[in-house]
Description:
This protein has helices spanning 48-62, 74-81, 85-98, 166-172, 191-204, 219-233, 247-261, 275-283, 300-306, 327-340, 394-408, 413-425, 427-453, 474-479, 483-492, 521-535, and strands spanning 101-103, 109-111, 177-178, 242-245, 268-271, 290-294, 297-298, 310-313, 343-347, 371-376, 388-391, 457-460, 467-472, 495-496, 498-499, 511-515. By secondary structure, it is an alpha/beta fold.
Amino acid sequence: xxxxxxxxxxxxxxxxxxxxxxxxxxxxxxxxxxxxxxxxxxxxxxxxxxxxxxxxxxxxxxxxxxxxxxxxxxxxxxxxxxxxxxxxxxxxxxxxxxxxxxxxxxxxxxxxxxxxxxxxxxxxxxxxxxxxxxxxxxxxxxxxxxxxxxxxxxxxxxxxxxxxxxxxxxxxxxxxxxxxxxxxxxxxxxxxxxxxxxxxxxxxxxxxxxxxxxxxxxxxxxxxxxxxxxxxxxxxxxxxxxxxxxxxxxxxxxxxxxxxxxxxxxxxxxxxxxxxxxxxxxxxxxxxxxxxxxxxxxxxxxxxxxxxxxxxxxxxxxxxxxxxxxxxxxxxxxxxxxxxxxxxxxxxxxxxxxxxxxxxxxxxxxxxxxxxxxxxxxxxxxxxxxxxxxxxxxxxxxxxxxxxxxxxxxxxxxxxxxxxxxxxxxxxxxxxxxxxxxxxxxxxxxxxxxxxxxxxxxxxxxxxxxxxxxxxxxxxxxxxxxxxxxxxxxxxxxxxxxxxxxxxxxxxxxxxxxxxxxxxxxxxxxxxxxxxxxxx
Length: 536
């Protein structure tokens, strides 16, 4: 349930998943780690060290931690789980005595042995998912795309979201403060670490490494991605099944070629959902019947009703609402996929960025035969790298490799090898921890600014990600029925935002989607203040 903090001036705000009784501060961090999706809430009373050792043993047996994998430093894992360092040290000691791991001094603790067989997943693994409440605002408002009080000419570049160059135009539009969603903190790019990794890679390359390579991607990056996904997203994957692509955009393009070849013309899409994703699917000649999202995620009953044989989802953190697909919906989705042979395209766009909730397992981890999983480093490092990955059901892998081969012969090798070095050395995980601390401060600044300066606002999706979705109470929505006019007025004042209606296909109340990763706390507060003045 959303919790609203009232104030004498009538302002309200909702912190999804924050708990408490309406305080404005950030809630205590979840006692959970991305490493193996560990969550101390799952541990029995007492015996934390035994529980931790057991979870790592199981991960080794399942192949999530193959021989040679390095375990997190005891200090880091203890901090993430909210336990004493002694708990982790004791768990590692037991694993060492068992012969599963061994200390390598400055090289850390690594897996040295694994059983021949792999146990079946524990009962309940397929449905364990965090739940972040975040129901959509039910206030009446204009239908997405219908003109409000301002005419289309007054709404400038926001007037036609179907224009193919609309995002190019928005990026090029001058603004003092950019609160666009989907924009990572480019100033935080780890230049020094990248340069060190690049020098190390170049020093080790043989002349033959500069020739044409495997269109699937370099073996080094495919191995590194496999280990990263096993550790951080709970996905057991053979590196042979990893396809390196030029970001999620190319992943969608390759999947569209596959789907059209199979006679598929529709891919159902969450509503609301990313305008950019919708544009890519439309450009590929695929229709996108909308499927409503509620507090539990996509409505699988509505998905069935569309008759679409495929669906594109953002289950770990739905864009733009921030809702997590809960366990019951995951089971219903699995039933739809297995009974009807449906294909789920999972866009795992910013799952690493979380602050107040446990990690949410990827759908691919429990439904590999029906999920095409797409991820990238665009939100973690920079979109300019154009590096991502696609894991498809094995029956589709060969066709996708062929499509990639004829698209571009494969991604550039040098950035792949540098990224693999960062992943394997622990540099990428260190960068992620740095970003989480930085983003938490910026998120909290935006939430406080909305609470104090944007009347009638309701915030969704605050527990994770790089953006917030804002809707308005009934009174404010009545005064501001056209969110494209509001976004246009904000841009004229030097503040760049996106209207919620851009991301909807069905009628929906007005709202905004606000990014906080790329702006300083000072700019965030000032930008929200401008929005507050415009709303009145």
